[in-house]
Amino acid sequence: xxxxxxxxxxxxxxxxxxxxxxxxxxxxxxxxxxxxxxxxxxxxxxxxxxxxxxxxxxxxxxxxxxxxxxxxxxxxxxxxxxxxxxxxxxxxxxxxxxxxxxxxxxxxxxxxxxxxxxxxxxxxxxxxxxxxxxxxxxxxxxxxxxxxxxxxxxxxxxxxxxxxxxxxxxxxxxxxxxxxxxxxxxxxxxxxxxxxxxxxxxxxxxxx
Length: 208
Hints:
This protein is an all-alpha fold. The chain is built from eight helices and no strands.
């Protein structure tokens, strides 16, 4: 039934992407950026993740098989890249944005953090890509079900954008000290997540 597929797809994507769980990471990653830049990061990251997940649903399985890339390999690579970002957060090695800096420099930073690590691998990570590919496989070539899946992906990522827009209010409420502590703590958690990505990837590769 189409309704059952819709519910299954929506629940799966919400759980895997976890919009609410992304809020602390978004706050930490965009710390120090002006309000306009934060909005730009949220929008860019949402659009990038939407393209990646929609593309995964449409041609993901074919592309990975064509390039001979396994999902475990993708997970390991994502984990290693995420760990580098996490280490910067823990040790405070962050690019400080001063008001006298050029707008071009800020815009470049916005593009960078929107693409990585926010869109990839936090929003459209190995888990979300895998879920999109598997759900597309369940559609079995049915255009209606595939359209439902694409609509679900768009809805979940739109929810992410709304949550991101509300995140600065939470950050302002916490205050400077709490934000600094949270940034360091999230860095440790992201590092642990990155290591887990690598462990899962290695385990899946060895099992295969």
